[in-house]
Amino acid sequence: NEVFIGRQPQGVLADLQRSQAVLPEDLITSRILWLAGLEPGHNSGGDVDTHDRYIYIHGTPEEHLIGTPVSHGCIRMRNRDVIELFNLVETGCAVDIIEPGEIAMNEFEDYELATLAVRAGQVRTHENEHSEPIFPTSSFVFGSAAEAAARFAGTEPGNIYSRFTNPTVRVFEQRLAAMEGAESCVATASGMAAILATCMGLLKAGDHIVSSRSIFGTTTVLFTSFMGKFGVETSFVDLVDLAAWKAAIKPNTKLFFLETPSNPLTEIADIAALARLAHQHGCLLAVDNCFCTPVLQRPIDLGADIVIHSATKYLDGQGRCMGGAVLGKKDKVGTDVYGFLRTCGPTMSAFNAWVFLKGLETLQLRMKAHCDNALQLARWLEQQPAVAKVYYPGLESHPQHALAQQQQSGFGGILSFELKGGKEAGWKLVDATRMISITANLGDTKTTITHPATTTHGRLTPEQRAEAGIADGLIRISVGIEAIEDIKKDLARGM
Fold it and tell me: What is the mean pLDDT of residues 245-268?
């Protein structure tokens, strides 16, 4: 009187044998339902909820409600509920298994960003923990040799090795994907690993990249010094000149790459226009969304194919861990980019993923504080006699101010300004600060300051820096969430 439903045929058959069930062979081989998200050893009381075209099976860890626990990847249900379930599946419904208190991923379509940042992707274990657990393990155990073989062959889902997948990392990936509105997300060891994985997963020798020249200096080095070794050519263009992007396209162009706002001049790209241009010529558009995060901007909604993050920055928000992420459609990110990560290994650790999950919970609150402080500081800097120019999209003087208002919900926490005295004045200002941290990192709750020409863009040639607009007197500030008057006073010492 019991039917077993599972995602692993070996587990299903073992349970059938143990229970001495007698079922037709065709039922065992052809009518097993494959269910995602099933926790080991959970029984089901047979509660089935239907919602649109989805079915949610609510499992329970209380063994006494049904009987003995079942093996990995299986649940027990009452026959009448199984019959109902089969009938629903045959009409085209999808099936998912959720735990008490868990929200199925498709339900998150109805939730707002602040809720996604706290709830999306969480799957509780049989311990019913409230906070997301950490799985600090290199590998995972199989129930049998056949199960191990099936996992490695890819015919059955499940964890194998943390270089491939890890439960804690998976929650981070699903949560960030929900926030960005992406089908798929893969987490990486750093932001640069995310850019590398994008290139290695989606490009081949003989392909061509069109990139904004207003990007992080290390990204420029990656494209010119390393991707060039593998036969991938890069052309650099003015971020805001759509005609320049079009003119740079070649028959072998496969990828557009940009940051918006750019680092460090905060130039704003018209994502929708560049997406249309890229797609007209069979190219993918990759957008580094590090400065805005999904709180302020969702590039996929504007037509981008790939979104890249350095999770080290705002997603963490407190400068604790390194990590990155690539998001987009499943066939590109979940297959091609993931394939590179699985093979070559620049993947995220479970501990770092857990830290980033905690960072995401407060991301919306922090971004508002960063934006508020940055706008006040930018307006103050415009009034300082030593400052030649301020770069911040929230200022009416910014050339892409209207575009930033259109495609962003806030202007971000990064600003730059150029001092009249060049490098000497820049270094004096940096050295005069007492509270502000002298570091190249950004996106921290603490305000940080750096001199780009000799740090983040120091590996570029003078000609490359000039083309990117990196003047010797340029200073970049990542505005933190301290009291704005204290930030002003610290900078005033060097003015």
Answer: 97
111 and 33 part of one domain: yes
* Number of folded domains that form the chain: 3
Burial of 100-135, coded b for 16+ CB within 10 Å and e otherwise, reads: eebbbbebbeeeebeebbbbbbbbbeeeeeeebbbb
Residues 41 and 133 in one domain: yes
CA 173/CA 184 separation, integer angstroms: 8
pLDDT of amino acid 17 = 53
Residues 203 and 310 in one domain: yes
Peptide bond into 264 cis (omega under 30): yes
Structure tokens of 115?
């809720």
Residues 180 and 110 in one domain: no
Residue pair 229/178 in contact by the 8 Å Cβ criterion? no
The domain that holds 467 is classified in CATH as: 3.90.1150.10
* Residue 338 amino acid letter: Y
Structural domain of 371? 364-494
pLDDT digits (tens, 9 = 90+) for 139-195: 999 988 988 998 898 888 789 999 999 999 999 999 999 999 999 999 999 999 999
Contacts of residue 383, defined as CB under 8 A and 6 or more positions apart, other chains included, come to: none
Same domain, yes or no: 281 and 353 = yes
How confident is the model at residue 155, as a pLDDT?
A: 81
Task: Report pLDDT for 83.
Answer: 60
One domain, residues 181 and 305: yes
Q: Confidence class of residue 48 from pLDDT cuts 50, 70 and 90?
A: very low
Q: Are 166 and 115 in contact (CB under 8 A)?
A: no
Can you give the CATH number for the domain in which 343 is found? 3.40.640.10
Residues 172 and 285 in one domain: yes
Exposed/middle/buried for 29, CB within 10 Å: 0-12, 13-18, 19+?
A: exposed
Task: Encode pLDDT of 411-436 as tens digits.
Answer: 999 999 999 999 999 999 999 999 99
Rounded Cα distance between 266 and 395, Å, is: 11
Structure tokens at 38: 């099933």
- Using alpha carbons, select from 272, 245, 266 the residue that is nearest to residue 410: 266
pLDDT tens figures, 93-136: 555 544 434 444 556 667 899 999 999 988 777 778 899 999 99
